From TrEMBL, chains A, B:
The lineage of its organism: Bacteria, Bacillati, Actinomycetota, Actinomycetes, Kitasatosporales. It comes from Streptomyces rubiginosohelvolus. Residues 7-80 form the Transcription regulator PadR N-terminal domain. It comes from the Bacteria. This is PadR family transcriptional regulator. Residues 92-178 form the Transcription regulator PadR C-terminal domain. InterPro entries: Tscrpt_reg_PadR_C, Tscrpt_reg_PadR_N, WH-like_DNA-bd_sf, WH_DNA-bd_sf.
Length: 188, 188
DNA sequence: TCCTTCTATGCAACTCGTTGCATAGACAAG
DNA sequence: CTTGTCTATGCAACGAGTTGCATAGAAGGA
C-alpha cells in the first residue's frame, strides 16, 4: 500500500488537489512512482475517511473549484510508522527485456525500431531531469541548500538521472547486439 | 498482461512445470520479471484453456509428479503478435525513493541502516549475476556463442548487471547524503 | 455558436497481483 | 515416529491497478 505513503510525502512537501497530485505523479515524481488520477482520487477519499488527510474546498477564478488535501497529525504518524518499518528491495518488471529474450523466437532485427523508440524516450526523460536539476538544485537561480528536504529530493533526482543514463547505455548495447545478429544473418 | 508473454518466452527457452517457472522467476529471470507461484499456476491454467500451452503429466522418482508445460503453435503466434506491437516504456515504482523523500519529515539518520541493508541485497544480486555470466557466457567452460537466443539472454543479463551497479553507486550517494545531514545536525 | 482544450472530479467494471491457507509425496534428522 | 524441509499444486479472499465512461466549468478559436 505504498501509494498511500507516496501521497503523504507529496502532500507534506506541498498540499494540493487530486488533479495536481496526478500531474506531479506523471511528471517530476514520475521517476520514482506512477499512478493514474482514478487511483489517486479513490485513495484520497479513503485516506480522508481514515483521518489521515484533511480536505478543504478552494474556489478558483478562471477554472473549476478544487479540493485541497493536506496531511493531518495521524497521517504524519502513519508515515512515520512506515518509515521505520523495513521494506523489501524492489524487483523490476521490464517488458522490453521480455521482448528482447522473446525475439530469439521471432525476428531479432524487427525489434530495432522499438528499441530505438525506447531509447529516445529515455533520452527525453534524462533531458527533463537534467533541466529540473539545473533549475532547482545546481543552477545559478537555484535556492541555496537550506533544509534536509531539498537535499533528499536532489539525491532522489540524481537516482533518476543515473537510471536514465544507465538505461540509455544498455539500450545502445542492445542495439549493437541486434545489429550484430542481423549482420550474421537470420539463419545463424 | 505481460506475465503471459514472460511465461511463453520462458517455456520456449525450456519447457517446465509451474514450480520450475516460479523458481526461474525468482532466480535467474528475477532481474527482469517477478511472479508468485499462485499467479503462475492461475495463468498457466488459463493459457491451457486458451490453447496457448500444452500440459503433460510427468511421473518422477523421489519427488511428487509434475505437470510439464510447453508452448503450442497458437501460443507462439500470440507471442509473435505481442512482439510486433509497440509497448509503453516502463515506469518505476521505487518504495525506497519514497522513503528517502519522506525522511525529510522524520529522522533522516534513522534510514541509514535500511539503505545499507538494501545496498547489501543489491551487492548480493550483482555477485549472483556476475557468477551466472561467468558460468554461462564469458567463462572458460561457457558454451561457444552459437545462437541468437544465447546472445539475447546475455544482453539482458548485462542489463541486470548494469542496473545493480548503478543502484549500488546511487545508494552510496544516498548514504553520503544521509551522513552529511546527520553531521549537520537535526535542526539544520 | 460550436468545437476543442485544459482544469477538475468521480463511478463502474474488470483484470492483475498478493496473502493466507490447504494438501500431499518423498526424504533426512532427531 | 515425529518434525522439518523440499518438491509440487491449488483455492479463496482481498487489495491494487487499469480502462472506459461520464460530468462540468472556463477559455479560446473557427
Amino acid at each position: 500500500m505504498a501509494l498511500d505513503h507516496a501521497i503523504l510525502v507529496s502532500l507534506l512537501e506541498r498540499p494540493g488537489s487530486g488533479y495536481e497530485l496526478a500531474r506531479r505523479f506523471e511528471r517530476s515524481i514520475g521517476h520514482f512512482w506512477t499512478a493514474t488520477h482514478q487511483q489517486i482520487y479513490r485513495v484520497l477519499g479513503r485516506m480522508v475517511t481514515d483521518g489521515l488527510l484533511l480536505v478543504r474546498e478552494v474556489e478558483q477564478q478562471g477554472r473549476p473549484d478544487k479540493k485541497e488535501y493536506s496531511v493531518t497529525g495521524p497521517g504524519r504518524a502513519a508515515l512515520a510508522v512506515w518509515l521505520h518499518k523495513p521494506i523489501e528491495p524492489e524487483s523490476l518488471r521490464h517488458d522490453l527485456a521480455v521482448k528482447i529474450r522473446g525475439a530469439a523466437f521471432d525476428d531479432p532485427a524487427a525489434l530495432i525500431a522499438e528499441v530505438e523508440r525506447h531509447r529516445q524516450v529515455h533520452r527525453d526523460r534524462l533531458a527533463h531531469y537534467l533541466a529540473g536539476e539545473l533549475r532547482d538544485f545546481t543552477g545559478p537561480d537555484a535556492p541555496a541548500p537550506q533544509d534536509a528536504g531539498q537535499e533528499l529530493q536532489h539525491v532522489v533526482l540524481r537516482g533518476g538521472i543515473a537510471y536514465e543514463r544507465m538505461t540509455i547505455a544498455w539500450l545502445d548495447d542492445v542495439l549493437a547486439t541486434l545489429h550484430r545478429l542481423e549482420a550474421a544473418g537470420p539463419g545463424a
